Structure prediction request, 1141 residues.
Amino acid sequence: MSNEVMTTVRARSPLAEAWDMFVRNHAAVAALIVLFLITIGAVAGPYLYPTDPFDMVWSPFSPPGEHGFLLGTDYLGRDLLAMIINGARVSLLIGLAAAMVSIFIGVTIGAVAGFYRGWVEEVLMRTTEFFQVLPTLLFSMVLVALFGASLAMITFAIGVVSWTAVARITRAEFLRIRELEFVIASRASGAGNAKLMFTVILPNAMPPIIVQSALMVGTAILFEAGLSFLGLTDPNVVSWGQIIGSNRQYILDASYTVTFPGLAIFITVLCISLIGDGLNDALNPKLRQR
Amino acid sequence: MMKHLVKGMIVSTVLATIAAGHALADDPVRGGTLITVLGSNPRTLNGAVQSGIVTGYPTAQLFASPLRYDEDWTPQPYLAESWDVSDDGLTVTLNLVKNAVFHDGQPVTSADIAFSVEVIKANHPFKTMFAPVETVETPDEHTAVLKLSRPHPALMLAMSGQLMSILPRHIYGDGPIEAVKTHPRNNENVVGSGPFKLVEFKNGEHVILERFDDFFIEGRPYLDKIVMRIIPDIAARTIAYENGELHMGAFESNPQMVNRLKKVDGLEVTPEGYGAIGPLDWLAMNTQRGPLKDVRVRKAIAYAVDKNFIQKALMQGTAADSRTGIHPDSPFYFREVEIYDVDLEKANSLLDEAGFPMQDGKRFDLTIDFGWPGVKPQVEYVRAALKKIGIAVEVRASADFPTWAKRMGEMDFDMSWDTVFNWGDPVIGVHRTYVSDNVGKGVWSNTQGYANSRVDEILALAAVESDAEKRKALYQEFQTIIADELPVYHTNTLPYHTIYSGKVGNPPLGIWGTSTPIDMTYLKD
Amino acid sequence: MRVLQSLLIRIFYAVVLLTAVLILNFSLMYLAPGDVADTISQSMGGADKEVLDQIRADYGLDQPFPVQLGRYVGRILHFDLGYSFFYNDPVTKLILERLPATLLLVFTAQILALVVGVVLGVISARQPNGIASHFVTMLALFGYSAPVFWTGILLLIVFSLKIPWFPVAGMQDVTIEGGFVVHALDVLRHLVLPAITLASIFLALYSRLARATMLETLGSDYVRTAKAKGLAERHVVYKHALKNALSPVVTLAGLQFSAVVSGAVLVEAVFSWPGLGTLAFQSIIARDTPTILGILFFSALVVIVGNLLTDLVLRMIDPRLRGRGA
Prediction:
């Protein structure tokens, strides 16, 4: 079955094929557009809406829509809209960066394990199993609490605990692909290990990794929000999770201060999930979801 | 409807009429289970080895102390039916009640008093409390004589509330004195002589106490049982009060909770009491670092930080003004000191004068620290406020408490927000922040590196002065000096509130809050 | 026998790796600035340097690093997780007190998510383009995309504050009198909101996978054959297709245990649920090293046990796996 998939995908332009599949999924296309707008907002927003998110611009807890503040003000009288716009940058950045860290670790470990097999695979998969068993949030809480809640540390703490799924998927793909004819053929024609791994096998292993990576960005955003909710956050930057965390105690009387950043996270992660679904359908039409 | 109206009126004027309300209340009723709450998990239930408000509430129910205090700071008999202080102030004699027994039926004797003093001196964090007590003599079973090396007026307060739990020697004296700190019976099978005994302490869930039938005060306590639920989350606690899941809670300081619950029918919310706890919020400034060495810079910061905003907006009107290192409820408080109403012009000219000219909207950088999430709004406010006078402030995150404590203790900070308790007598909770021989000795020492020989001198005198008026005068001079030199800028009291339902009769609203026996509290039918 | 052997090998590996990470973490915690003595003094309302030094001496925190590490490893080798500086109790006792609450929450949420997820998945798979199907897809995406603590807060506001159906915090009402049934019902009432909150994330994953696998099996040859043979639709769906669809869902659930425990930390914080998560958070903030390490150890054990149970369940629903090593 997989053989068949490979050959068909290789026969035609795979990207065009995938794109055709993707655009047929209306929800995914809509999500892509929304996410694109959110990204534009994150990049250009601070210039279009130049209010400093740290400035106290009005009295605290001005409800949404009043006094010219679309989303109201927080406990210090800061403009919630400005905070959410600026928070988008940090949240998306952490999401992307943490996902990249974990994809890097996961692909490397999975690829090496799946390619070399033997004791290398044994050691690497035991390590993976171990990280799978470790409760991720607890471990990153310890890291952030001990070494400070800087953005870099938070990103690292999220990335370093989230790579196991990627490693497993990559390894499974490598195990499958390394036995395929075209790999055997290039091995016979004298291709080195590195070349085989990165230019022959990896490109063909990409579809499920891409799907998983997309989902991982969403998970990382949620993860950062969770850490911030518990107070493990950098007070010198605004992120969506951080807005929720610091407004948590006002939830009963000014619930909008938590609802809006919560919605921002929700919509973003929802879009990412929908895009992930679309990618999944487009890239692995017959592969079972993982 | 009528009833509700009346209730509303009572609530709105609760501050003024609460005392009268009590006098009019019905006679106490016996029985019932009082459901109360703790905001975090107590480390231990034994107040002889641990201070702090979370331990204070259970420990004061489990262990009796020699004295208790009424609302007017007057000592009242408790385990000691009478007492006597010699004219030179060096001998304090306690005459114990004859009928007091511990929860295991053994009588409370002077030997237990002597033992407890020893335990507290060896284990309790407040070394100043009993430091001058050299020996405790026990001429007979019911007389304990404390011999002091110097007069120690703070001693009376230190013998009350949660500060002096009397432990049974036959239970806690089975090992070295220092080992009482980790005695297994600090958390289970606790034995004291207080009005309630321990049923169960379930870490993270609850502490349950029940009436001690042989309590030495006839007919008390009124309650059959006290449940102390442990609910750390503020929103969850607020809803629990609101839904009537809790009868009473104390030491609540979250402004949103307080203001919200004030509007709830059937709940009373009052800041009354807590005078002996004396919690103060302040902006600490490291007087040995950078621009902050200059008193003009510290004054400029005070002029730029709007106390009014902190009290009205951040604390939402729940906090009271405080101007000096002594809590406004203390008899030693002196309010006629220099104050710093917001004045950005003055702040700017002070900074110019100090040699920090404004360049491109900025004069210099400072950092600010905070140790726990509750004060993050204050820290963020300070950053925004000082930006206006050209001081760029970076908030330093310390994810966990030890990181902050370490920075404070080693004076590795520019500014920090801090909350510090007076603990009744200034000798216990105030001197530590200002005397120069306590510089940089861990968190809540003189972390500001403040040194003024006159202040040292005054505080040394005040510690041993037995004449109340003379002592007051000394503290007055002290407060004037520190308000002028500003090692810390005092912004407000931390508003502790007691929240209780209309069903609760005679809630504990004295100087110790709930860190006092609640043997007189009852549930109305 | 082979099953037992493979289980034992897995447990052995896990224990070795856990010990390694405990040592690693112990070293990490030593490197970070500050220690638990500062936190103890905070909970005391302040202490002077002398007291801090005393506390450090009492708990051996003044010893050089190799000595502290040696002592810790020595204790671990004797299956002793040490003594909590902050709570004044043996770590094992502390954790065992909290563990039941977390187990109850984690397993209830998992089972709830599995059962409801599979049911929803089956319903929607029977009519892939029906309203029910779209509803399931939406619900699943919502549950997955919303931050779990946010869901919890919203549920708390609606079902505890606005409509006071469920209690706000804790696991039981200690004032209730009555027998086991009364208490069990009371715990159940406290469990509803936290369990639903936690289950909401995983419900999403399971119902999606259940739907996908059901669609696949319903389209496969042997189900078509079964239908052609004239077997009732209901019979085909439940007897054949469901059975085949279940095992990937259960496999996925097994892989999620670590994530469920992580989610439980947040849910416990929202609902003041007296479990390991609450304890973990407090210990991390207090830098109570032995307790944190103990919790990491035990929560990893929960995950391992969860995985083993998953294996057992898989063997039960899929006879083909019986007799095979894990």
User: Anything to note?
Assistant: Residues 287 and 293 of chain B are 5 Å apart (CA to CA). The longest helix of chain B spans residues 468-485.
